[in-house]
Amino acid sequence: MKGSPISNRQLMILITLITISSPIFFLPSEVSKSAGRDGWYIVIFSGLVGMLNVMIFVWLERISPKKSLIQINQETLGRFVGGIVNVLMFFYFVDVGSWVLREFAEFLLSNIEPTTPLFIYLLIGIGMAAYAVSCGLGTFARVSEIIFPIPILTYLSIFLLTLNLFHFEYILPVLENGFIKPLSHSLSTITFLGDVICVSMVINYVKTTKRTAFYALTGMGITVVFFLLAVLSSVLVMGAESTANQTYPILSLISNISIGGILDRFDVLVVAFWMIALFVKITSYLWASTEAACQIFSIKDRRYIIIPILLVYIVSARYKVDGYIDMSTFYSTHAVYFLTFQTFVPLFVLLSALIKQKWKRGKAVTS
């Protein structure tokens, strides 16, 4: 995949599609289980952490222009420590990418055609992503730009069409347990909104300007708004308890929509557009994995590494968990694992880079 330059607008769109893709279907259930009717509050707090993650990558790119996180790690932490961190980052990219691939296959298996072998769905998902990777970053970004309005307008239509079904008493009393207690259940939600680590392997190809940070934050802001709408709509229509018991609350929400028999099968369109967004996320992580492997092992021709990575993705996704329940449990019980690579490692690298930069400036002044 050639690293063609992409615009600030395309960066914004990639951030939105990556973060909004899979979580929007099951996030209302997750936050309702942990915070009940106050799930919206957790989404806002988690969104702020997600914006922090985005700004870390923007800041790192400004310190070391046109370099990926892998290159910055080695430059900042040294060959040995940076090398260890980079290998761990590579395995994290593969791990998360294979999780998303399994989500894609699991959803199709349980909601579309249960008799089809799981392997076939995995092959379809990774095959589409591999083709997108081979077309180049610029082409992939332009395609994302074209399809961006479709899932966004679809999700917005869902929330607008359910307005007449809202029961505002379902969300009262607001913050009954105070401002602090609900945040104790926010870790898993933070990992959904902070899941932009693959952007660290793309941002060095962005034609950066003074407005790059604004576009990046706008991308995350759009995701927060739609997550808020998803959580609030689910709770206001079905109640917090019912939402918590749903596997995919958005699909249950759609089943309440019917306009003169015309939109009785609105769920088919939503699933199709959701798969488009999920395809963008799988492709982004496959790109990050391939790019990281090439930079770590100094491989110039990506054709030598892409096939082994595809095989690792398929095997990892196939044998990672037994089913959706195990997958959902892992997300909620291993939030610290995801946060370590999403936030803590990049933040540590940023602080190290700032200290190193300040030390060099001080040394230059004294000399």
CATH class division: Mainly Alpha
Please provide the ordered H/E string of secondary-structure elements: HHHHHHHHHHHHHHHH
In terms of structural class, how would the helical and strand content be classed?
A: mainly alpha
Mean pLDDT, rounded to whole units? 85
GO biological process, one term: spore germination
Keywords: Germination, Membrane, Transmembrane, Transmembrane helix, Transport
Protein name: Spore germination protein (Amino acid permease)
Membrane topology: Multi-pass membrane protein
Structure description:
Keywords: Germination, Membrane, Transmembrane, Transmembrane helix, Transport. The chain crosses the membrane at residues 12-28, 40-60, 80-99, 119-140, 147-166, 186-206, 213-238, 268-288, 304-321, 336-355. One of its GO terms (biological process) is spore germination. This protein is globular. It has 16 helices and no strands. By secondary structure, it is mainly alpha-helical. The protein has one domain (8-345): Amino acid/polyamine transporter I, CATH 1.20.1740.10. Helix 1 (8-20) packs across helix 13. The protein has helices at residues 8-20, 23-35, 39-63, 69-77, 79-111, 118-135, 137-147, 149-161, 187-193, 212-238, 240-244, 249-254, 266-296, 303-319, 324-333, 335-366.
Question: Features of this protein?
Answer:
single chain, 367 residues, mainly alpha, Amino acid/polyamine transporter I, Spore_GerAB, Spore germination protein (Amino acid permease), membrane
